[in-house]
Design goal:
Helices cover 30% and strands 20% of the residues. By secondary structure, it is an alpha/beta fold. The strands form 2 sheets. Strands 7-6-5-4-3-2-1-8 form an 8-stranded parallel β-sheet. A two-stranded antiparallel ribbon has the order 9-10. Helix 1 packs parallel to helix 7 (202-214). It is globular.
Length: 230
Amino acid sequence: MPVDAKICGLSSSASVEAAIAQGARYVGFVFFPPSPRHVTAEAAAALAALVPRNVGRVGVFVDPDDALLESVLDAAPLDILQLHGSETPARVADIRARFGLKVMKAIKVSDESDVARAFLYEDAADMLLFDARPPAGDSDALPGGNGIAFDRLLVRNGGWSLPWMLSGGLDAATLGAAVAASGAAIVDVSSGVEDAPGEKNVDKIRVFLECAAGLSQDQTGDKDRGQDNG
């Protein structure tokens, strides 16, 4: 089976259509105003209407309150809520129960202790995403989408029970090595398919997804890890 991919931070119909045409398994819309990839709920609703049922529509939030989640979901149909802030396991579980959608918790990684935190969310979330921790002291760094990689070996053979995605510093050139090192079956890219922050390049989306489709989960040695079972 090929490696599945999520194209995140989409904000135009052209980028959504490119992702779908090339076989993206998930598309992501960012609801975080400081991000250059931020979209309004109304804009996301129009983009989500372009997405077929077999492609997961992911909303990316950073420490959202219930009012924000309600306002977005009232306008835009989403399948998965990605939480990319400092949400506790209790908060993640509460959001999942309250809104009745799958929840994916982002784990920010710089060392083994960060990876170990993933086990705290096994009963609260439906999926995990491993991304690089933003640089310490960089006030301009976003919670994610900074184009920074981390040691992929840290997440190999992690042992958690949830399906998971690999993110952080991925592009077409680095994808193969990142998958081989991590054993990831699902990958997530945003800045790696852009010309500038928030400006997706449809040709880069196409090439990235072609590279993902050309990779085999069998080659990673962990065929069953990371798959989304529903």
